[in-house]
Amino acid sequence: MEGGGLFAARQKNLLEFLSLLRDLRVLEVSGFADAADRVHLNLMSKAKRPGESLDLIYTAKQRKIKETVRDFAEAEISHESEDEVLSKGLLQKMSRLNLFGLQLPEEYGGAALDTVCAAICVEELSRVSASAGLCVSVHNSVSAYPILAYGTEDQKRKFLPDLASGKSIGAFCLTEPNAGSDPSSIESRAVRDVNGDFVVNGQKAYVTNGGIAGTCLIFAKTGDDSRSGMSVVIAEWGAKGFTRGALEDMCGMRGNPVCSLFFSDVVIPAGNLLGKEGGGFRVAMTALDAGRIGIGAQGVGIAQAALDAALKYSNERVQFGKPLSAQQTVQNYLAEMAVNIEAARMLVFRAASLKDAGKPFTKEAAMAKYFATKTAMESTTTAVQIHGAYGYSRGFLVERYFRDAKVTEIYEGANEIQRLVIARSLLEELGRTRL
To answer: Which domains can be identified in the chain, with CATH numbers?
Structure first.
């Protein structure tokens, strides 16, 4: 009841919140971005949650977004069961906060936020529900964003308004039973018919949002088996021959409806080709660069939740006559978690800032994704250890954080792939400096 009342109070100020965003956008456009930052200093009296560093890194707009999404998540999502978090009712509430149009332009119904603000939203959602954070991250970064970046104006007007409103949920369909880290080995095919439309056959596996998706980016071979033979077509749920498999019984992220998608002679209009024919690999890499910032933010949110829980439990649990938090070993655990989480958050913001500035960010996105998800796994493991046997039971949330964290090291490019991306980028930079 207390959380619901808090969110109700926030809702009353929603118009004020939107007005603030407009005002700050004017300040930024007018060359007064520093003024927007200074406004933030008046908000420093807000109490912080345990383990959260000083908020001097946030502008007023970012802080307001952070508070609004946090209050929403705690009031509306925290009480949902793990397996049923993305109910139709909750999706509608999320759409009213424009969580499905975070970075889409206002002309398509989006919030027109920058990547840093979008990352803040994903972090705060993931701190309460990693499944909800995953839904929002994938929908915005690897579903809507590629259409905005590569779509024709007709495609943007056809698909983006429904994606922004949440009327249609997006999915990114690259992985297949025989194609994971090697996307060039996909077997799905899209062949032109006599009318020039595409006839798609194949299967996509472990599709995030798959059970509720209405707009799906399908990567399929339209030419030879090389990377240049891959294209992207936009499939709409309801097309004849387009079916879903049963929901996967996952270890973690159980609230997200992950499933396989099947295509049997599905006819997709020629106008739904995204980008150039044969340009699918480029679209995939562009989308995944953006997506890795979102998954990095998700990792930070999960890790922060684990630290919050560990701080609370260690301060309450008494052993050997004093709280666990008074034990030096536990203090070392807490300190290491806090340092790594803050470092991960800064890596995410760094990659997001580069993207917003229109600068290359492939290496930095890989760094953020790698370190933040590694930090999530290590922090949740430590949180379980601090909780002892209680941490291994369903009675405490840290066991869920632990299960949710693991898959962040796998999807959006396994962390082994991230290390390759980082190393190759460093070697390329070295080669350029020697020329």
So the answer is: 2-169 (1.10.540.10), 170-281 (2.40.110.10), 283-434 (1.20.140.10)
Q: Rounded CA gap, 61 and 137, in Å?
A: 20
Q: Is 412 a catalytic residue?
A: yes
Q: Which of 114, 113, 217, 219 is nearest to 170 (CA)?
A: 217
The catalytic residue among 124, 336, 412, 429 is 412
Contact criterion met (CB below 8 Å) for 104 and 110: yes
pTM of the model: 0.87
pLDDT band at 37 (very low <50, low <70, confident <90, very high): very low
pLDDT at 319 over 70: yes
